[in-house]
């Protein structure tokens, strides 16, 4: 009966992880699963509890920080167009709500203003709000 209870506890704890989302419940579910495996030969209850405690401690101390670091690590070099958002650019050809050109990150980009009523003159510095295909959507701070 012991292994079944530990297995059910592992399922409940793993399900609770969906609400928490910080790996704590998942580590406890792993400890309960390890205890279910250890309880199959019929060890005493105190040994099952000790197995759960040791497994939970080891998983929480060693595996949880590793998983958290691994899953939240940012890419070393972001080469996507998302990396250009927030950058500054220089206007090469007047930018309006329908078109223009800017020098962004050393290359020339098509651009349009986020505010279609205000044209941005040549030589002005602008901020890149987003990249829409091959067009940089920019705005000039007042």
TrEMBL record:
Superkingdom to which the source organism belongs: Bacteria
InterPro entries the record matches: Membrane_assoc_protease (IPR052165), NA-bd_OB-fold (IPR012340), NfeD-like_C (IPR002810)
Main location: membrane
Any single Gene Ontology cellular-component annotation: plasma membrane
Membrane-spanning intervals of the chain: 44-63
Mode of membrane association: Multi-pass membrane protein
Gene3D superfamilies: Nucleic acid-binding proteins (2.40.50.140)
Keywords: Membrane, Transmembrane, Transmembrane helix
Pfam families for this protein: NfeD
Residue ranges annotated for the NfeD-like C-terminal domain, each copy included: 82-140
Entry's localization field: Membrane
Protein name: NfeD family protein
Organism: Corynebacterium hindlerae
